[in-house]
Write a structure and sequence with these properties.
Blueprint lengths: L3 H40 L4 E16 L6 E13 L2 E5 L14 H7 L5 E7 L2 E6 L5 H40 L5
Antiparallel strand pairs: 1-2, 1-4, 2-3, 4-5
Helix pairs in contact: 1-3
Amino acid sequence: MPDIGSLMNNMGGLTIALTVIPFVIVALVLLMIARRGSSQAAASKNWATANGRVLLSQIEMRRSSGHHGSSPYPVVVYEYEVMGRRYQSNRISFGTEVGGSMVAPRVVNQYPAGSSVTVYYNPLNPAESVLEQTSRSSRVLVWVVVLILAILLCTSVMTIGALGFAGQWVNDLMSGLPSR
């Protein structure tokens, strides 16, 4: 007769692996995205600056993928001049866009239409510019990864404990039955 406890432990390892691996892959992808945004922000520390003017500053409601409803996102369009040529951009910072009811109004208030701004632009490609030499999304993504990993750790520990308990309970139950 097979040892039920070892069978439960083996199934527990498979269950944990099948559950954990996809989340670890997602966490690694998010870390790569965060690192890319942080690298871009670090590289922009050597960029040139130009005086700019905000042309448009408003909140735009966007439908979130996979969700019903929409979320507010800040839209800031600005112009600047480099060596007599005018450029326009709407890139606020590096990384993915960050929206939400806490972020969007604050960004729009920070960059009101008609205000003067400092624009950081790539001297090798003046059309590439930002208003902030940061990556707002990188910080958020790192915290999401930490949360995912903490949940996985807690879930794995609880699953291993539950499977061990169940395996022991089944073995104890089976040992009390008469053998054939």
